[in-house]
Amino acid sequence: ARDLEVAETVLGAGKIGCTFLPDTAGAPLGFGAIFRPGDVCAGALDEIFAISAGEVNQRFAGADYSMYVHGMADCAGEPASFARVWCDIHCVKDAVEQGNAALRRSLEKAVKVLTTNV
Fold it and tell me: What is the reported pTM?
């Protein structure tokens, strides 16, 4: 948006400069055409501004599309929340299995020590 404001300011200043270009008459025998280079200059500046504004808008549109694509790949929404819950359930299951295995090993050692001492 700031780029367009600067471009509009430059365009306005350029058009003011175009108004100072004098008209030229091409009338070798007393009749002919009058050329207005100020109008040509202002028209050219309008076209240049339109092209540059279009490029700026395309750049913003490309950035919006890129953000949309990356947003779709991001972990958000219901599918991601279900995936997180599924992962949490597996983590809890693994922790319980490891705790049970550690308890079992501890009990086996205790039974071994008791059997050896008796």
Answer: 0.38
Decide: 37 and 21 in contact? Cβ < 8 Å.
yes
What are the average pLDDT values for consecutive 10-residue runs of the chain, which has 118 residues? 70 77 75 77 79 68 66 64 83 90 91 87
pLDDT at 65: 66
CA 70, chain centre distance (Å): 8
- For helices 37-73 and 2-18, the axis angle rounded to 10 degrees is 170
pLDDT of residue 45: 78
Tell me how far CA of residue 54 lies from CA of 12, 29, 65, 114, in angstroms: 18, 45, 16, 85
Spatial distance between the Cα atoms of 112 and 106, rounded to a whole number of angstroms: 10
